Amino acid sequence: MKFYWISVVIFLFPFFLIAQNSELVLDTRVSAIATMIEVDNVGNVFLLNNGGVKKYNLQGNFQQKNSAMVYGEIASLDASNALKMVMYFRDLSQITYLDNQLASRGENVALDELGYVQTTQVCRSYNDGLWLYDQVSFELTRLNEQLEVTAQSGNLNQILNIMPEMSYMREVDRWLYVADVEGVFVFDWYGSYQKIIPIPDISKFVIRSNRLFYLKENKLKYYHLKTLEKAEILLKEKGVIDFALFGDRLLLITQNELVIYRINVN
Prior knowledge:
mainly beta; Thrombin, subunit H; four-stranded antiparallel β-sheet; 2 helices
């Protein structure tokens, strides 16, 4: 039994610690109004709402904001590259690039002018590329830095034999993961469908060290992508709107707070 618990701790360290006796340890809580939260690859925290983007550090201290959002409501922010974050405005099909000081970087991308008028999801790809999902053609398209097409999935309605309803997507280690009501679809860097992860109807996920984390039923859950192991931890906060992970920090957005926890194992 002792060996078992040591193995569990080693298995989950250092990205997250979830075991039968684990508990959330409150680090800080800050008054904040947001609908989305993202963390970049160096630990900067970004809260998004209709008024723009606010930057915090991992201690919950406010840093700065960008409220000059001229393209309407922010649909998503992919902060996986701190020096060139991808912000998408779905209503006007516009992409804006930001650095981690929330300053504009480079020229905006007008997807409608490129012929992508019904793009519902956007995320970064390797070498400053982009993945797009078009809900009319039911197709994933990868653009390189010069906005040239380098990969396409084909019509996913025909390939998957379902009507895709995709809510979130991220590229991790050149695999594209897409959340849908049916589960999380996985595609290779050519846009070819590989498999479905049996986690239906989630609005967001975070992948760390071969684990796919998500929120459901007031719990933080994970699914191990290789061993298929599952685990969960009950959240103390009610009505969690969104979450993010960085190292041993769990960051939650509730109706009026940013709450930051550490995970310890007793």
